[in-house]
Amino acid sequence: MCGTLTYASWAAMMTRCRNKKNKDYGGKGIQVCERWKTFANFYADMGERPSKSHSIDRKKNNKGYDPKNCKWSTKIEQGNNHSLNRRMRYRGEIMTISQARRASGMVVAKSTVTTRLNKLKWPLQKALETPAVMGRNQWK
């Protein structure tokens, strides 16, 4: 299975966790469980990588790679799982700003939303749902 997407994901996971110079994985102490150091065991637990748009994702970013902490995810799903994400309540649910933008229909650019939240201290609903007005007085 050396030429498959699943094998490529496993090999990349092993490489980044073994490399102590990789500050986000090996250098941070993120490890692969003993069982998954063998590809056959990894494959038995994770199955086939669903598509090119999927990659291995850790549910809890501060924990290592093991069957209970990993799943196949798309880039959007992984982006929502990033440890630096800001989570807020929107429409009764806790979600990232990107998730809230998608839920609102993304009428306002992400940079406009973050400016409204960070600099103007607007509540999330207002920041997402107030149309942007072009020109000098757009922040009034």
Question: What does the model show?
Answer:
- The protein has helices at 5-18, 39-46, 75-80, 97-104, 110-118, 124-129, and strands at 54-58, 70-74, 87-90, 93-96.
- The protein has a two-stranded antiparallel ribbon. Strands 3-4 form a two-stranded antiparallel ribbon.
- The protein has two domains: 5-80, no CATH class; 95-129, no CATH class.
- The protein starts with a helix and ends in an 11-residue tail after the last helix.
- The mean pLDDT is 89.
- The protein is elongated and about 55 Å long.
- The protein contains six helices and four strands.
Structural class: alpha+beta
Radius of gyration: 20 Å
Mean pLDDT: 89
Helix content: 25-40%
Which regions contain 5 or more consecutive residues with pLDDT less than 50?
A: none
Query: How many extended strands?
Result: 4
Number of domains: 2
Q: Classify the oligomer.
A: single chain
In which order are the strands of the major sheet placed?
Answer: 1-2
Question: What is the count of DSSP helices, taking H or I runs of 4+ residues?
Answer: 6
Q: Biggest sheet, in brief?
A: 2 strands, antiparallel
What is the general shape? elongated
SSE string? HHEEHEEHHH
CA-CA gap between termini? 59 Å
Strand content: 5-15%
